[in-house]
Every structure is written in C-alpha cells, then in structure tokens.
Amino acid sequence: MNEQSDLDLGLSLPIMEHFYTIQGEGRHTGTSAYFIRIGGCDVGCHWCDVKESWNPDLHPVSSAEEIAKMAVKHSKTIVLTGGEPLMWNLSPLTSILKELGCTIHIETSGAYPMSGTIDWICLSPKKNSLPLKEIYEKTHELKMIIYNQHDFIFAEEQAEKVNNEALLYLQPEWSNREKMTPKIIDYVMKNPKWKISLQTHKYLNIP
Questions:
Q1: Which pLDDT belongs to residue 56?
Q2: How is the cofactor bound here (predicted)?
Q3: Which residues contact 106 (CB under 8 A, 6 or more apart)?
C-alpha cells in the first residue's frame, strides 16, 4: 500500500509536532496532556498562530501506530489539534489510543465530519468555514476566539447552535489580548453563561 493510500485511510498522518505539556485553554486548563498537531488546514484564519501547519505536505508522515505508541509513553490524556485534524480519518489513530487506555480530546473548527472515537470535543468555529450540524450536536466545549467587537455577535450566534450541555468560553486572540480582554471580562460579567478562557500556556512560556 502506498503512502497516499495510507493517508487517505488514516493509517498514516502528517504530523507537524507532538509534545507533552500542560493544556493552557478551556475546560481542561492546567491538565497535563500529550498534544498531537496534525498538519493540514484550509480554514485560513488571518490571526492563526500556527500558519505553518496549513500545508500538510511540509510535515513528515508517521504511522498512526507509531504516533500512538509515542504519545502513551508520556500521558493517557491525548489532545488532537492542528491545523484542522478532522481533515483526516482519525479512526485508526483513536482506535489504537483507546486500546492503550487513553482519553482523547480534539480541538476543531468543526468544518469537517467527525471521525474516530473522541471523548471531549472542543469546538472553535470560524466565520469563513462554519461547523457541520453534527459537530454542534456533539460539542462538549465551545471556545470562541475574540479578535474584535463583532466576534461577540458571532459567539452568540454559535452558542445558539450547540447543544444545551456545552460549556461556553470566550478567549481573547493573543495578538489583540490587551484590547479585548477587558471587553471580555465586562461581557462575561453581564452574560454569566460564558466563562473566560486564556492561553495560559503562553503566559507560562510553555508549548
């Protein structure tokens, strides 16, 4: 079987990076976890802080089995991120991780169909490529990135679409945090269904 077929089937994936660290955002802030950043994304957010992840051809291809065995040496909590991880078939990787006793989180824009076995879905919608209905229904955590004032309106629109059990977070976009964080604080105090998420890993100077 050739490399492209393996990629199509999810038996191999383009991996930008993988590392053991502390989750810095959202519900599981402060939790140690092994991050697997999968290359490839066509959502194209202008403020993305990992634009180097967009082109999957720039990143080495590794087998799902190899990735899983490396990850589990460090942690049983695994975070799949990107790029946009749902561009790929995650079933082989997550099946192996579950066999190894892992809890699997994903960080996604929701623009592609869900694949694999995922225990915690962090949905971060983007205006130019909205989530699929099935992702809204399964979301555990809605994380809205606030770059400008209009993003509060977009956040409310997205909150209306997720299931009633989903946790709601507003997170300042890092490059504009000094301007938007005070506005987020004020907004959450007026709208307490929301919580604040900060990129605490950047404050801690860790990956």
A1: 87
A2: Binds 1 S-adenosyl-L-methionine per subunit.
A3: 79, 80, 81, 85, 86, 90, 118, 120, 121, 122
CATH number, position 149: 3.20.20.70
- The total of other beta-carbon atoms located within 10 Å of residue 3's CB is 10
Pair 62, 38: CB distance under 8 Å: no
| Alpha-carbon distances, residue 50 vs 37, 55, 61, 112, 162 (angstroms) | 10, 11, 18, 19, 26
Q: pLDDT band at residue 2, thresholds of 50, 70 and 90?
A: low
Q: Which domain holds residue 35?
A: 3-203
- Report the candidate in 193, 172, 194 with the shortest Cα–Cα distance to residue 183: 172
> Residues near 5 by Cβ (< 8 Å), separated by ≥ 6?
none
Is 38 within any annotated ligand binding site? Answer: no
Q: Which two tokens stand for residue 161?
A: 């679409």
Residue 47 is labelled as binding a ligand: yes
Q: How many domains does the chain contain in total?
A: 1
Asked if residue 199 belongs to a known ligand binding site, the reply is no
Outline where 15-122 has alpha helix (H): 64-72, 91-99
Query: According to the annotation, is 4 in a ligand binding site?
Result: no
For the residues 17-38, what does the mean pLDDT come to?
97
Query: Is residue 124 marked as binding?
Result: yes
Residue burial 76-100, b: 16+ Cβ < 10 Å; e: rest: ebbbbbbbbbbbbbbebbbebbbee
Residue 81 marked ligand-binding: yes
**Per the annotation, does 207 bind a ligand?**
yes
| Phi, psi values for residue 144, rounded to 5° | -100, 125
Amino acid code (one letter) for 189: M
